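Hi Y.,

Following your request, here is the sequence exactly as I used it, all 193 residues.
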Amino acid sequence: MTESIRATRAPVQIGSQQIDGFMLPDGSYRMSQTIAAECVGLSERNARDFLRSKALKSLLGEGYTPAISSVEIESSDQLRGQSRFNALPLEVVCAYWQWQAFRGNKQALSLCMALMLESLERRFDNAFGVTRTLDERQERLTSRVQQLENDLAELGEGFALDDLLRRERDYFERLLRENGIDPWGLPDSNKEV
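Below is the corresponding structure, written out as tokens. Let me know if you'd prefer a different format.
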């Protein structure tokens, strides 16, 4: 029987959400696939389906094999096997959230945008010698996520409709061109009907 991987748990604050984060004995971080899905308003099954999809390989490269494993949480007051979960590496969690944002999940989009902005801001703060406390960063992230969610809700589906129409037009234009028809050209008056 193989020895299971044991992880230590710590609370991780992501804006207004507090999640359980895990560290493996090798120092790498993991998140449960259930929590990864719940962070963007989806079920664990959605995350599981993503892991089996071609989308993961397209985002992280064809040769990428995620180190997804069942992990046991280290705890002195629990019996063996009581707390196991499927552990996702952080790059898989990021790919999943980005994929959900790409597919139109507004919660995932606002989370990804706020986290990217925080990452850039940290680098700029470092370059300009600006120091912020962790609490300040959490407040800013929470505020950004909420503002982005509000903005996306106000935008509604109006912009999505424009994108859908544009994609449809581009598809039919490409189809016409593939069949030798210039979609924007004038009809040839010399041809017989």
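Helices lie at 33-38, 44-52, 54-60, 90-102, 106-128, 134-155, 158-178.

Thanks again,
Q.
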